[in-house]
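Board notes (copied after class):
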Amino acid sequence: MSEVRTEQVVNNDEHKEQLIPVSTELQLQGGGVFYLIIERNRDGQREREIIEIKNLITDLGLDIFIRNLINSSPVTISHIVLSDATTAPSPGETTMPGTNKWAQAATVSRPTARQARWQASWAQGAIVGTIGSIGLCSDSAGNNLFARVRLSTPKTVGADDTVSVVYDLTLSRQS
């Protein structure tokens, strides 16, 4: 269900590092895709780990989607929230679970006519702990949980690491 890609990133004057947005084509069948990107320095080399996980859109998320479509009590989905929760996502969830939560207002864009993208980044030291879940919510407290994933293996993040998350939701016709 998830794919992990690790790449060495050269960091010198000849090669400037650039984070290239990740995208995927996906029929909307109750989900989108989260990409968790953790960058670390190991033995003087930069290492980037990218984890791709298909998510569960909650029942509330589906309700928000329809409400926003017909402009009936719309809800703005504006934050990516990371937490230490390791429980499986449930369709009935309405708030982001977990004891420790790290939230960031997302930059929202429309890369193609049928795709929405939310992106957020945390600087070095902003997250120190274990990430078990990622969610897309309406605020920094994790309310109005639109979508959530649980990492198959929780990721420990240290004071020298940076974290980025990209969430892509793509609509396409079913064949």
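Comment from the instructor: The longest strand covers residues 147-157. The CA atoms of residues 16 and 100 lie 34 Å apart.
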